């Protein structure tokens, strides 16, 4: 049984390193649909379930301190590539499609929560708020909301399982939609002749080196500490707007500002942010216990209802506005899947349209946390 905080953190980092190595260096098809961070969650939670991680003040203090330090830094670095000037170039119709997709998911969560509220845990609204953050942005948004709302680890484990299963199914559906895009566009009477491909984000001009790594790590952790201190000085508003919320807001706005400057193109920001994401997920997972997974089917039903509502609303929107399937599929994937999958789905339609998928996903990476917090507040109020 591990009770030392440093050893506990070392085991999580080693486990994450092994899983990333295996998923990135092998051709096993399973890893195409189940990312390494999900496997990390499962493995870390399994270790806790069998008693590898013991209850101790050292583990709690280490995990809490590391998570509090890395969460704002991770969000800051992930937003370095989110240049609003490029997002605006998408045009009003494409931007509207993205926002309709996000709103339809919010509506889906409200309907599903009301339908299954009696069977859900008392603090399910926190975990579902985190899931909505993932389904309107990405995994980083999910982790951010979990940190803000302090959703119970067990309940958070349910929604992470739901996120993984339904995301995989949805991604397959989006890929499959390419085959009937022409028939769908005829049904909506969409005009695809005027569809303009946008330019993608600029590639990093310099390779990752010691200067960029030290600069990004030092700057992001300094901003994290400063934003946390400022957040503690600001007033709390209800259950959602806490000191952590203020901290996330500060780093998010700063990240968007930096994205418009040359600093936003510093090599290595995404890679460092992903390392931080793995550490945070490992810490969260180490507090989960698989013995309470009997409630997971209820949360799976909630997720299915959310996606059905999303599908219906998007189909109606496409018919009313004569929108082509490409925009719908990529906007939906950018919300539910995030940066990793939206460009891939866009490329399945046309390789030249990949930049649109990238920009859609970047919009979600910024907005997902705030949409998820809004959903959590709505669920807590109904």
Automatic annotation (TrEMBL):
<feature type="transmembrane region" description="Helical">
    <location>
        <begin position="272"/>
        <end position="290"/>
    </location>
</feature>
<protein>
    <submittedName>
        <fullName>Membrane protein</fullName>
    </submittedName>
</protein>
<feature type="transmembrane region" description="Helical">
    <location>
        <begin position="30"/>
        <end position="53"/>
    </location>
</feature>
<feature type="transmembrane region" description="Helical">
    <location>
        <begin position="296"/>
        <end position="318"/>
    </location>
</feature>
<feature type="transmembrane region" description="Helical">
    <location>
        <begin position="94"/>
        <end position="116"/>
    </location>
</feature>
<feature type="transmembrane region" description="Helical">
    <location>
        <begin position="155"/>
        <end position="180"/>
    </location>
</feature>
<feature type="transmembrane region" description="Helical">
    <location>
        <begin position="358"/>
        <end position="380"/>
    </location>
</feature>
<keyword id="KW-0472">Membrane</keyword>
<feature type="transmembrane region" description="Helical">
    <location>
        <begin position="210"/>
        <end position="231"/>
    </location>
</feature>
<feature type="transmembrane region" description="Helical">
    <location>
        <begin position="6"/>
        <end position="23"/>
    </location>
</feature>
<keyword id="KW-1133">Transmembrane helix</keyword>
<feature type="transmembrane region" description="Helical">
    <location>
        <begin position="65"/>
        <end position="82"/>
    </location>
</feature>
<dbReference type="InterPro" id="IPR008537">
    <property type="entry name" value="DUF819"/>
</dbReference>
<feature type="transmembrane region" description="Helical">
    <location>
        <begin position="325"/>
        <end position="346"/>
    </location>
</feature>
<feature type="transmembrane region" description="Helical">
    <location>
        <begin position="243"/>
        <end position="260"/>
    </location>
</feature>
<dbReference type="Pfam" id="PF05684">
    <property type="entry name" value="DUF819"/>
</dbReference>
<keyword id="KW-0812">Transmembrane</keyword>
